[in-house]
Amino acid sequence: MRTSLFVIAFFLFTLHVNAQNDSLRNLDINLENYQYPFPVKFLPLDLQGEKLKMAYMDVQPEKANGKTVVLLHGKNFNGAYWEQTAKSLTQSGYRVIIPDQIGFGKSSKPAHFQYSFQQLATNTKKILDTLSISSATILGHSMGGMVAMRFALMFPRTVEKLVLVNPLGLEDYKLKIPYQPVDKWYQTELKSNFETIKKYQLNSYYDGKWKDAYTRWANLYAGWTLNKDYPRIAWNSALTYDLIMTQPVIYEIQAIKSPTLLIIGQRDRSSVGKNLASTEDQKTLGNYPELGKKANTLIKNSQLIPLDNIGHLPHIEDFDRFIKPLLSFLNED
């Protein structure tokens, strides 16, 4: 009886701690006052004249199947939002590596940095090399999909399989969106707060239908806007907007040879800088049903899983529908 009461009390305490952890509050520049779901390690990097640290989680399964999955986050997120995915994968025997890219989450926010997808892919490869992992499935969501595609092009022998979940970069944004200087992206980011972040996510990710479960991810980004170091965070965010806009990968994906799974939420119409395009071009940008089909045609060894009535974040909006095809693909010989 006492054991049962202890378990219940511990469960309630955990819920209370998690609720506090996910509430809107001042979050420091490297999220040192925000607890991730798994222990965090750091890879030291000496890049472009700065000594940086790249955070990552290395989640071990209870009964290992000898395979590894790397989960790459999107632009407005960090590795924490892969918690449920990582738990499911480790229960299935997979070791899971979850990096925070430089400029994101618990990783360093450089004062001056020239971002490139090649650099982000190389940093990710260094984590795998440090852990003596020679082969893995690389899974990328949103901007993480652009990193994953670049990784597959640069390190094909390391990529056992590739998974792209509503990836950015399946179209060349600069063909329809006027060029924006980094300083303009920066000024826009400085105006961010919980209300603007929620409005963007509501309209871009969830088709105007907000659930309480989404609030934690809005709070995680909005908490930074309350911190004195937010201008540094906003600057790095502006640089990554420029990265996405100026370094399209769509022209090269036909060279990807790895077995590839495209999980595409069919309601998604996300596009970086879409509001800056003409009214006519806004109608055609971010058309994921068509973009998914195009990518499926270009990547020869690929399969497409369209998820009806799902937006930009399948693993957040409807986890069961996301994880089933993912595990099926991973378990294929």
UniProtKB/TrEMBL annotation:
Gene3D superfamilies in UniProt: alpha/beta hydrolase
Q: Does the keyword Cell inner membrane belong to this entry?
A: no
Cited Pfam families? Abhydrolase_1
Q: Name one GO molecular function term.
A: hydrolase activity
Which first-to-last residue range defines the signal peptide? 1-19
Q: Which UniProt keywords apply?
A: Hydrolase, Signal
Looking at the record, the residues that make up the AB hydrolase-1 domain are 68-271
Q: Kindly indicate whether the keyword Transmembrane belongs to this entry.
A: no
Q: Protein name, please?
A: Alpha/beta hydrolase
Q: Which organism is it from?
A: Dyadobacter subterraneus
